[in-house]
Amino acid sequence: IVELCAAAPLLKSLSADLLGYHEPSAMEIGLSCPLLESVDLANLEDFAYLKPGPAETYAKFFPNLGILKICNGYRRYRPELFDAIREAASLLTKVKEIDFRGCEVTLPLIDALVGTTVGDSMTAFGSCDGDSDDTTVYLDACVAALRGFPNVRELTIPEESPRLEVNDRAMFAAMAAARPEIKGLHFEAGAPD
């Protein structure tokens, strides 16, 4: 795949799920094809569901990515390589969206994104194109995202997130205080009441 990419430096999209991921190869592909805006490389090793996702591994090699994917492709993934996520989110200047699908979005994950190029450019949090089943946004992470991402104006609480009761005024007050200029608030089916 590296040789093929080197022969096609104008590539803008690469999906090589069946070929697997190898960090030196990802770096070489990124150098050979600097225009890539969308990259999907699978981790085909044993126990791949335990392996880090794109933001923790190869995303940093592709400066023109439009979407920063956090999840490793398996359900209920909990990212843990926060320094690597912060590095990728600081280097990538073209990202318009963070794809949290299938992830557990925790406070340490949000802390890794706050103050980065990606975090500062986000306008929507908790949403992503497509199915958000098995995406969990913890409420403390939600408040931290509203506080830390200065341009967020849309907030979506996915279905799998912890329940927020209508009478939990302290949490609603914290959300409102964190981002009073919010324009859209969306609770997916089954999300907090």
Briefly, what is this?
The chain is α/β, with parallel strands linked by helices.
Topology (elements, then pairings):
Blueprint: H1 2-6, E1 13-16, H2 23-32, E2 38-41, E3 67-69, H3 82-91, E4 97-99, E5 104-105, H4 107-113, H5 117-121, E6 124-125, E7 136-137, H6 139-148, E8 154-157, H7 169-178, E9 184-187
Parallel strand pairs: 1-2, 3-4, 5-7, 6-8, 8-9
Helix pairs in contact: 3-4, 4-6, 6-7
Structure description:
It is built from seven helices and nine strands. The strands form four sheets. A three-stranded parallel sheet has the order 6-8-9, with helices on one face. The chain is elongated, with a radius of gyration of 17 Å. With 193 residues, it is of the alpha/beta class. The mean pLDDT is 84.
Q: Which terms summarize this structure?
A:
15% strand, elongated, 193 residues, alpha/beta, three-stranded parallel beta sheet
Give the DSSP E fraction (strand runs of 2 or more residues): 5-15%
Number of beta-strand segments: 9
Q: Uncertain runs with pLDDT below 50, 5 residues or more?
A: none
Distance between the termini: 48 Å
**Rg over CA atoms:** 17 Å
Oligomer: single chain
Describe the largest sheet. 3 strands, parallel
Order of helices and strands: HEHEEHEEHHEEHEHE
Helix vs. strand class: alpha/beta
Q: Name the shape in a single word.
A: elongated
The total of helices stands at: 7
Strand order of the largest sheet: 6-8-9
Tell me roughly what share of residues is in helical segments.
Answer: 25-40%
Q: Whole-number average pLDDT?
A: 84
